[in-house]
Write a structure and sequence with these properties.
The protein is α/β, with parallel strands linked by helices and 478 residues long. It contains twelve helices and 24 strands. The strands form five sheets. It has a nine-stranded mixed sheet with strand order 22-21-24-19-18-17-1-20-23, covered by helices on one side. Strands 2-5-8-9-10-11-12-13 form an eight-stranded parallel sheet. A three-stranded mixed sheet has the order 14-15-16. A hairpin with a 6-residue loop joins strand 6 and strand 7. Helix 7 packs across helix 8 and helix 9 packs parallel to helix 11. The two termini are 29 Å apart.
Length: 478
């Protein structure tokens, strides 16, 4: 017998963090406009269209850093902008003006309602070619420099910050130590990284004992990092860049082959969730019963054609990303910080927000549309989905007397009807918030209507049909 009902048990299982929808901003130099595209150098301020669309995306948490952090000296990005010293962007190419630094990033986050945090320069993560590059200078920084950054941000009496015009402290309570440290065999090994993490944590907490620190634990490092440095950490970070079968020679996700075979493209994208799930399972196994939660501070598709692959502009990719958000939610007992895209730029399709340059209105990519939908319609506690039709990918959560269902119709062309039921209790009312569009639709410019959320009442009998290739949030009052 084919199951045609979505049945949920409203008993809370574990807390869900709002930070499952974070973003991160990294100056990507000549590779992608990123920070430079978001900043109006004539006005000396953030582009208003970027501020507006980011507020609509509503990320609760935003990180500044990435690989860029491994050669970033934070003092070069504070004070009068006309006096700031430019730097070579060693990985991403070009020169970085440093017109956006600590104060500017914090101000941006405050405007859009996000909590900012920084990834510190972790002694260039042991990478000598970044610590002392051929272009000269020392780009590595140790515990003292990280601690001074904490003091600059959080000490009410910090003289330098006050001279720079910020009388009140920024009060940043989350900091990351180490970024992709395990990815370079010429960088630090796990033992060295763990010992140096302790040194950083101690120095930084001497400036502010209340800060929370994220350490690095990817590439099989998790258990050993926790064994050595676990008592000094509040989160353990890992990254996941997934390919969804694009390595196959015949994969439609290679470059722009996706337009030639929509069925094959859909099949590959609907299986993309398996790679993140497998990665998370490995991290769960490595960390065992540790009480330290996981932080997925970078996660996105990485496809042949670099990050330019235009399949990521399609609604089909939006549906695929919704399934991965469901993976994060199912693992929300251990994962408390997560993202699913780079934040913004004018080139890479892995961005949540695309910024037309030199002019135009910034817009959300499909991945950002589903992140915004889920962000606005999610509960504080996960609840169990007892059963669901096989073609629907469903997660559920609860806040008080409101239940939230996240429902992905994995059928490209067929609607899926379902009865929505509670294992116990009665429904007072329900509303659907839904994005449905042809999977082949490509978002290449601002178009407010193309992926607009459609809001409708669910009938009292709780019978509902999910359109093909749709992503829905159902709010149920009980």
């Amino acid at each position: 017998m084919v199951n045609k009902a979505i049945v949920v048990d409203s008993e809370p299982r574990f807390g869900l963090s709002p930070d499952l929808y974070m973003q991160f901003m990294e100056p990507l130099g000549s590779t992608d406009g990123s920070v430079a595209a978001a900043w109006d150098h004539v006005r000396g301020d953030w582009r208003q269209d970027v501020v507006d669309v980011t507020a609509e995306l509503a990320p609760p948490l935003m990180r500044f850093g990435g690989c860029f952090s491994s050669y970033y000296r934070w003092r070069e990005g504070v004070g009068l902008r006309q006096r700031r010293r430019p730097m070579h962007n060693l990985l991403w190419g070009g020169m970085e003006s440093n017109h956006v630094g600590t104060g500017e990033f914090v101000e941006f986050c405050r405007r859009v309602g996000s909590e900012p945090f920084f990834c510190v320069n972790f002694e260039s993560d042991g990478r000598r070619h970044w610590a002392r590059p051929p272009c000269g200078g020392v780009r590595s920084a140790g515990p003292a420099e990280a601690a001074a950054w904490v003091d600059y941000c959080n000490n009410p009496r910090n003289a330098l910050r006050r001279r720079n015009g910020a009388a009140e402290p920024f009060n940043l309570k989350l900091w990351q130590v180490g970024n992709e440290t395990s990815y370079d065999p010429l960088g630090y090994d796990c033992e060295t990284a763990a010992r140096r993490t302790i040194a950083f944590a101690k120095a930084m907490r001497r400036k502010d004992p209340e800060i929370k620190i994220i350490g690095w634990g990817d590439s099989g490092w998790a258990k050993r990092m926790l064994d050595i440095a676990g008592e000094h950490l509040d989160f353990l970070a890992f990254h996941n860049m997934f390919r969804a079968g694009s390595a196959e020679a015949t994969s439609p996700l290679r470059n722009n082959s996706f337009r030639n075979d929509p069925d094959a493209t859909w099949a590959h994208l609907m299986n993309a969730w398996r790679e993140p799930q497998e990665k998370i399972e490995r991290l769960r196994a490595e960390t065992g019963d540790s009480s330290i939660p996981l932080a997925l501070t970078e996660c996105h598709f990485t496809l042949p054609g670099r990050n330019r692959c235009e399949v990521l502009s399609t609604w089909a990719a939006g549906v695929a990303n919704a399934r991965i958000l469901n993976v994060h939610e199912r693992n929300g007992d251990r994962i408390k910080i997560a993202t699913l895209a780079d934040f913004c730029g004018n080139r890479w399709q892995v961005n949540a927000i695309m910024i037309p340059t030199p002019h135009g209105r910034s817009f959300m990519m499909p991945v950002a549309r589903v992140m915004s939908l889920y962000r606005r319609h999610s509960g504080t506690d996960a609840i169990r989905v007892v059963s669901a039709p096989s073609d629907l990918d469903v997660t559920a959560s609860r806040s008080g007397n409101t239940l939230f269902l996240h429902v992905v119709n994995t059928c490209r062309t067929s609607p899926v009807p379902a009865d929505i039921r509670l294992a116990a209790g009665a429904v007072r009312s329900a509303r659907s918030f839904q994005i449905a569009a042809p999977p082949e639709l490509e978002i290449m410019e601002h178009n407010a209507d193309a992926l607009a959320v459609q809001e409708r009442m669910v009938p009292k009998d709780m019978k509902w049909t999910f359109p093909p290739a749709s992503v829905s949030a159902i709010e149920i009052r009980i």
